[in-house]
Specification:
The protein has helices at about 1-10, 20-25, 25-55, 60-75. α3 packs antiparallel against α4 (about 60-75). The protein has a domain at about 25-75. It starts with a helix and ends in a 6-residue tail after the last helix. The chain has about 80 residues and is mostly helical.
């Protein structure tokens, strides 16, 4: 009896293979990421304009955050290659 159980446990489990990973197909997660990155870009651009209107120089961090979030949106929104 114990030997049957051991043999049954040693068989490899059948795992279904998905062509697209579940993380990439989750629409809600994608929307949250795109909205967050868009708000970061718009917030940085608006803050930079507001600081320039006040006669102050905008910090380099705002420019870096804005360009980084735009680059991240490009990576997230580009179509994935299907092979």
């Amino acid at each position: 009896m114990f030997e049957k159980f051991v043999r049954k446990c040693q068989k490899p489990a059948k795992v279904p293979l998905h062509p697209v990973s579940p993380a990439c197909s989750d629409v809600l997660t994608l929307r949250i990421v795109v909205i967050t990155l868009s708000m970061t870009t718009i917030g940085c651009a608006g803050s930079s304009v507001w600081l320039n209107l006040q006669g102050k120089q905008s910090p380099d961090l705002l420019t870096t955050l804005a360009t980084s979030s735009v680059a991240a949106m490009v990576v997230v929104l580009k179509p994935s290659p299907r092979g």
